[in-house]
Design goal:
heteropentamer, A mainly alpha (202), B mainly alpha (192), C mainly alpha (333), D alpha/beta (443), E alpha+beta (272), B: 192 residues, mainly alpha, 9 helices, 72% helix, globular, E: 272 residues, alpha+beta, 3-methyladenine DNA Glycosylase II, Chain A, domain 3, Alpha-Beta Plaits, 3 domains, two-stranded antiparallel ribbon, 11 helices, 37% helix
Chain lengths: 202, 192, 333, 443, 272
């Protein structure tokens, strides 16, 4: 298995959201604006990389029985770090993401990669895996956010702390799309369409 | 009294944890295939949510805040919840096998259920007192049960539907959840 | 060559097409009333919705490689029901989106006619309601009957005054404001019954809906149990809550909902006792939503919520089989 | 109606009113059909084990001679219906549409006439009566073909209080029982006396549907006060002729699930069976012929014919004539009778009618293009045993047969009411039959 | 600062110690016996208790795999590795101890050979059509509605254009599901090494068979005679081959007047 493969598999082939269906809660909750989606993606990727490195480093020292609690502690530490960094430097994002930042702890992607990958592989591979998965997660969440924001607010927001741009899209915004039902319907239909192409491939 | 009732209704219907806050979505999609397991899961969740809300409140007020260790909240909460759930599971398994088969087997699912941590964190951020925390936890569990039961009923019926192949399973479940969430929007602005 | 099949070898002439055709016929009085009160624009809304429904169903069935069954009329019913649930001055894209969503997502993705869990028209309506709340809550008073003299099929602008629906007035200002608006209580009842009030185009005229409903009863397409239990429950509960029961049953979408949407075959319980539970639940929810929630009207939501509960009701409420001791059968073997 | 008090009753749950179409043969009195040139006599015309052949190929048999011996208790004797030569013993299509062993007899030789003296049966013992019924090979002639001697031989631990005569004939088109009641009331009443003695019951109910009012009045004239036979007029409703529904209608009792009528102290018999019992007990005459309604809009000479058992359908068609090619031929009534695949299919003891449907009539049933269930619940309303045919058909469609027991599939009587009303033309009965056979195979 | 670090370490450590100890104690005190295999399977799962499999947690799913034969590919976080591991644990990779069998279709009555006798209306499946006696002229032969194809979990049997099923021997695992599914018992399980097959199941007499099917067995019993009834005998107008004891060569197949018998020469030679 090549290193390249390790990196890219998470982006499409094993995309955590659409194909493995992990880590849905934050995906749906914060995908009201594109920038929130990207922010969440980066935060999760950071935690993913950090915890994957750490866990693959200590994987030989943890007793098998209590590995999950140990992983959780490691992840929780990284999550707290992210939480505080965001609060310090990107306050609007921190406010928008709210409790979904600490909830990264129980995001199945991170625990899942820790258990299924980092706990059994070398540090380098784990980093590549984490980056790939992180990018996949970020892409998926951004895609959903893009759809929801265009339909729901008629804008594409790539602006944070005064940097970046906001595009106006000439559609009549449907408020419902930025409300919870919009998120669920969007991901349902998206998943169905992706499934359709996946089945066609076979 | 009305205040507490409002907290329960708010957590159960208006801000339903699954349908409007997406907390606990994975088991919601996973365990809602059969009504029996939905019921067991729901009951177990009500129990754990109420219990963990109380324990976490105590932990937060008497340890973390006293010692000014608020930054440890995430870490300690998840640790305590995980341990608590496992303990409860073991106790039930030993004390009452019948109850264990009805509820206990769903307990492991709850550890990594974001609803539990979510309620704990929300309680802290909203500065609820002990009773309010417990009620909030109970209400959240109740809301989860309601949503899960409706969902499981619908999915049992969808077993006999000609759903397009690519929409079978999770996609159609999300669409149903979306429609349910749409319906639950009617409880917004509810006044007792 | 001899033909063969399993018995029975004769069949009742009532098939899906029969039922759907009769429902469409039964909706004609309400359609006429809507045009009478809200002008040509109402007619165009209805035509556009029906066309969207038929188009969406055909496209979706072609896309899913299923036999195209628009001719059974169920799509047309959905389209018409969506139109009935629109305010008169709504932009035309709103019913189009609502109908398309109802047909494509709520009906065809669930497997088509018979497999949908929720009423497609109502989901479409509720969806657009939260999508374009301002448009969906702007109501017009009915036109002066004189408009028919200047009849013009393409006069689609509705230039009458906007006003709140009676239910909204009742919720915000109380019953006395309504009575003074209409002159007397009798006038209020009478105008509500005839349909000369603000509201969705198809729901205001209770008289027209009743005519259609009795046609359906006489054709044995629907049974009167659910609608009447529903309406009676609403009356009793509103009376208990200190409201005017007659006003509550005559205003809003209660009749349209009770007779045309709560009686939908697909989304309602099957057993008699189940449908009683369903009807009482509908009444309860409607009254709670009307009086306690932030919305003035709750018929659509109560029907949808009870649609969601229907599989549970069907599973839990069973009839005792001939020759069996207990009702539950061997459910928990 | 003189001294006889007639009460009108029916069962409440379910039931349908299909077009009766009895007028086609309503006024046609019973006629004899010519003897067939070849009789194909199935060894299994009854519920239970097939009879064992006691003749060989090439044997000469006479009319009424025993050719198939019953195999065990749940079986029945089979007799030759014509005089002739056995030409073949082998698999042929029978009414149940599976090939099963039949004895083929070619018509040959003289026919002996039976003596017509009326003997006295009153000093026969219970065992003797049962023996004669058994030897004559009498089975239920309403359609189910349950061996009558087994039915009337009620176990000693069960108490039978009522004997119910089934003159409901609820199936559309059929009039053979009606004609029998019109033309042989005395014989039927005598048959009832025999069975009354056999079962030792005090009370007999005679149920006739109101669309056969002349028969009701005709029978009433032949009843005497001391017979203790109560005539019951039944409101017209299908499937009132079903045992369970008739008991519900007349006694307002329910046969427990999986049980038999004598569990509620009742025994039910069809009028044609009673007539056959009388012939068997009085004259020791085996069942070699029966009254069959040959009907349908395309039949040239529809009517009620006395047809020999084993007469192939092609012979019947040759004698009664058809105006056009039949699209479907049904043995029995249109609601429960099977449609045949071959014109060689013989008339058996359980064949109450032969119905010919034209292309146009057949087209109204569209099981080949059935659609999704729309949950209209009409089937629930018409089901006479309060089942949920909707769920059963869905489970059949999605092949989740093992869940079907939850919906009491085994209690289905396959009357076809649900199927008749289904607006989606779903073959519900077929789904249920498939489910039943799957579950039986599984055990 | 040091005090702060110390405090946090102590509290997390203390909590960890407390609960760790409690759990360890509980695990000893409250232990409940579990099937070893369940334990092994559980170890291979991802252990997240995420519930995506639809079961209540990993141990429940493991139990379901072992006891209820749940599908092994439901653990999404574990992915393909887990599936392989479970298969190893359960030894599902294949059992080669006895001679494997493959499904054999015993009918040659394709759509051209056997005519439709009747026009059937109703559920389209073999078991349903056989309820009304079948729609083809032969009442023993294949109806071609594909119950066997639907029953096969391995994609190994397919109805061809001529209306007869064809077994893909490479894919067939010999599970026998198609045999159970066929309402007319046309499919049989024959040893892989068998080479002499009677491809007809009609119990009708010769004339009846030849009237409906040109490729059906007329019960002439030549094949049995040729082989001196060794390993082949006649039952109900049909030859029955006992694959274990049958030693004959292809003469029987050659002599068959309606060419009902399939003789696989390569297998015959291989066996020799």
């Amino acid at each position: 298995m090549s290193r390249w493969n390790e990196l890219t598999k998470g982006i499409i082939k094993e995309n955590p959201i659409f194909f493995i269906m992990l880590g849905l809660c934050p995906t749906l909750a914060v995908s009201t604006k594109v920038i929130y989606g990207i922010g969440m993606g980066i935060a999760a990727t950071f935690v993913l990389i950090g915890s994957n490195i750490f866990i693959s480093l200590i994987r030989n020292f943890i007793p098998d029985k209590i590995r999950i609690p140990c992983y959780i502690v490691v992840i929780a530490t990284f999550v707290t770090i992210v939480d505080y960094i965001l609060n310090a430097y990107v306050q609007p994002l921190h406010k928008a993401l709210g409790i979904y930042i600490p909830l990264i702890v129980v995001n199945c992607i991170i625990l899942g990669r820790a258990e299924a990958y980092a706990g059994q592989n070398t540090v380098l591979n784990s980093i590549l895996d984490a980056i790939g998965m992180g990018i996949g997660f970020t892409l998926a969440i951004t895609l959903i956010a893009l759809i929801r924001e265009i339909l729901g607010s008629g804008t594409i927001t790539l602006q944070m702390l005064g940097y970046g741009w906001v595009w106006e899209v000439p559609v009549k915004p449907m408020t419902i799309m930025v409300l919870p039902p919009g998120a669920l319907l969007t991901i349902g239909i998206l998943m169905g369409i992706i499934n359709h192409f996946k089945q066609k491939e076979k | 009294m009305e205040h507490y009732l409002l907290i329960i209704i708010s957590a159960a219907l208006i801000n339903n944890f699954v349908l409007s806050q997406f907390l606990g979505l994975c088991p919601f999609i996973g365990v809602s295939k059969k009504m029996d397991s939905a019921m067991g899961m729901g009951m177990a969740l009500i129990f754990v949510l109420t219990l963990s809300s109380i324990i976490v409140y105590l932990l937060d007020t008497y340890l973390l805040v006293r010692l000014h260790l608020e930054f440890l909240r995430t870490t300690t909460f998840i640790l305590v919840i995980a341990a608590l759930v496992q303990l409860v599971e073991m106790i039930i398994q030993k004390v009452s096998p019948g109850l264990y088969h009805a509820l206990g087997i769903y307990l492991p699912l709850i550890t990594t259920n974001c609803a539990v941590l979510g309620v704990a964190l929300l309680n802290v951020s909203e500065m609820n007192n002990l009773l309010e925390s417990a009620m909030n936890g109970f209400g959240a569990g109740l809301g989860f049960v309601i949503a899960l039961l409706i969902m499981s009923g619908i999915r049992e019926r969808m077993e006999f539907s000609r759903i397009p192949e690519s929409f079978k399973g999770a996609p159609i479940a999300f669409i149903v959840a979306g429609i349910l969430s749409l319906i639950f929007l009617c409880f917004k602005g509810f006044a007792v | 060559m001899l033909k063969t099949s399993i018995s029975p070898h004769i069949h009742s002439p009532q098939n899906i097409e029969y039922a759907m055709r009769n429902v469409l016929i039964a909706m004609v009085p309400a359609l006429l009333a809507s045009v009478y009160f809200f002008g040509v624009r109402a007619l165009w809304l209805e035509i556009i919705s029906i066309l969207t429904a038929i188009l969406a169903e055909t496209l979706m069935q072609l896309l899913l490689r299923k036999p195209v069954t628009v001719s059974d009329g169920s799509a047309a019913i959905t389209g018409l029901l969506v139109a009935f649930n629109m305010p008169p001055n709504i932009p035309f894209y709103v019913p189009v989106v609502a109908t398309a969503l109802g047909i494509i997502v709520v009906k065809q993705l669930f497997g088509g006619l018979g497999h949908n869990i929720f009423n497609p028209a109502l989901v479409g309506r509720v969806f657009v309601m939260f999508a374009w709340l301002p448009e969906m809550t702007t109501w017009n008073v009915p036109l002066h009957p004189d408009w028919i003299r200047h009849f013009n099929l393409f006069h689609i602008n509705l230039d009458s005054i906007t006003s709140a629906t009676p239910l909204a007035v009742n919720k915000l200002q109380g019953m006395s404001a309504l009575v003074s608006q209409f002159g007397s209580k009798t006038q209020l009842y009478l105008q509500s019954f005839l349909g000369n009030t603000g509201g969705c185009i198809g729901e205001t005229s209770e008289l027209a809906i009743l005519i259609g409903a009795f046609y359906l009863f006489s054709r044995k397409v629907i049974w009167p149990t659910v609608p009447f239990v529903y309406i009676i429950t609403v009356a009793v509960l509103t009376a208990l809550m200190g409201q005017d029961p007659l006003f509550h049953i005559l205003s809003g979408g209660l009749f349209l909902g009770a007779f045309f949407m709560a009686t939908d075959y697909v989304t309602t319980p099957m057993t008699l006792s189940g449908s009683l539970v369903y009807a009482v639940g509908l009444g309860l929810l409607t009254v709670i939503l009307r009086l306690k929630s932030g919305l003035p009207e709750g018929v659509s939501f109560s029907i949808l919520l009870m649609n969601g509960l229907t599989p549970l009701i069907d599973k839990l409420i069973r009839v005792r089989t001939y020759g069996k001791q207990s009702k539950r059968g061997r459910d928990h073997e | 109606m003189k001294h006889i008090k007639i009460r009108t009753r029916t069962f409440l749950q379910g039931g349908i009113h299909p077009p009766e179409n009895k007028s086609v043969t309503y006024e046609h009195s019973i006629e004899n059909l010519p003897l067939p040139k070849k009789a194909i006599i199935p060894l299994s015309q009854h519920l239970g084990k097939p009879a064992l052949p006691v003749v060989k190929k090439g044997d000469t048999v006479s009319e009424g001679q025993l050719i198939g011996k019953k195999d065990g208790n749940y079986s029945s004797h089979v007799h030759s219906s014509i005089t002739g030569k056995v030409t073949d013993i082998g698999p042929y299509y029978t009414a149940s549409n599976v090939k099963s062993n039949c004895i083929v007899i070619q018509l040959e030789g003289e026919i002996k006439r039976m003596n017509a003296d009326k003997p006295d049966w009153s000093n026969l013992s219970r065992e003797q009566i049962l023996q004669r019924i058994s030897e004559a090979g009498v089975v239920g002639m309403g359609g189910a073909a349950f061996p009558t001697d087994v039915k009337l031989n009620v176990p000693s631990d069960k108490k039978v209080d009522f004997f119910i005569v089934n003159g409901a004939e609820c199936e559309p088109y059929l009039t053979c029982d009606y004609r029998l009641m019109m033309e042989k009331p005395e014989e039927i009443v005598e048959g009832i006396q025999i069975i009354k003695k056999l079962l030792n019951v005090k009370k007999v109910f005679f149920g006739v549907e109101l669309n056969k009012r002349p028969a009701l009045e005709h029978i009433a004239e032949h009843l005497r006060e001391k017979d203790n036979i109560e005539l019951i007029a039944l409101k017209v409703k299908y499937p009132q002729g079903g045992e369970k529904q008739l008991i519900k209608a007349i006694l307002n009792k329910e046969v427990p699930s999986g049980g038999l009528p004598f569990d509620v102290g009742a025994v039910v018999s069809n009028v044609a069976t009673i007539n056959a019992v009388r012939d068997a007990v009085l004259f020791q005459k085996p069942v070699i012929e029966r009254v069959v309604t040959v009907t349908g809009r395309i039949v040239k000479n529809p009517g009620n014919y006395k047809i020999r058992i084993g007469t192939p359908l092609s012979d019947v068609i040759a004698d009664t004539g058809l105006t056009e090619e039949p699209a479907k031929i049904i043995l029995g009534g249109p609601m429960m009778g099977p449609s045949v695949v071959s014109l060689d299919t013989p008339v058996t003891k359980g064949t109450s009618g032969i119905l010919f449907l034209s292309e146009k009539e057949e087209k109204r049933v569209r099981y080949n293009a059935y659609r999704s269930c729309i949950h209209c619940a009409k089937c629930l309303m018409v089901c006479p045993v309060s089942l949920n045919p909707c769920m059963l058909s869905l489970q059949g469609e999605f092949e989740t047969y093992d869940q079907m027991t939850r919906y009491d599939i085994m209690d289905c009587i396959e009357c076809g009411c649900c199927n008749y009303v289904c607006p989606s033309f779903r073959p519900i009965v077929q789904f249920i039959k498939l489910g039943k056979s799957f579950l039986k195979k599984k055990g | 600062m040091l005090k702060f670090v110390l405090l946090s370490t102590l509290s997390v450590g203390g909590l960890g110690l407390l609960f760790g100890g409690l759990l360890a104690y509980a695990a000893k005190k409250l232990a409940v016996a579990v099937d070893e295999r369940v334990h092994d399977v559980e170890k291979t799962l991802a252990g997240l208790n995420c519930g995506i499999c639809g079961y209540a947690g990993c141990s429940t799913y493991a139990k379901a795999i072992v006891e209820e034969k749940a599908a092994v590919n439901l653990c999404a976080p574990g992915g393909k590795n887990t599936v392989e591991k479970i298969k190893q644990v359960l030894n599902l990779t294949g059992d080669h101890s006895r001679e494997s069998v493959v499904a054999r279709v015993r009918c040659q009555g394709d759509n051209k050979t056997v005519n439709k006798l009747i026009d059937y209306k109703g559920i389209v499946s073999c078991s349903a059509v056989s309820q009304v006696g079948g729609d083809k002229a032969c009442s023993y032969g294949c109806m071609g509605y594909g119950d066997c194809e639907n029953a096969c979990l391995f994609d190994a049997i397919h109805i061809q254009e001529n209306g007869l099923p064809l077994v893909d021997e490479a894919k067939c695992t010999g599970c026998g599901l198609c045999v159970k599914a066929c309402p007319r018992n046309i499919i049989e399980m024959a040893p892989q090494s068998a080479y002499f097959f009677i491809r007809c199941v009609s119990k009708d007499f010769g004339p009846v068979v030849s009237r409906v099917c040109k490729k059906g067995c007329i019960g002439c019993n030549i094949c049995a005679k040729v082989n001196n009834f060794e390993g082949i005998k006649m039952e109900d107008n049909l030859p029955v081959v006992d694959y274990a004891s049958f030693k004959g060569d292809g003469t029987g197949a050659e002599k068959c007047p309606t060419k009902v018998i399939e003789f696989v020469e390569s297998k015959f030679l291989a066996r020799k």
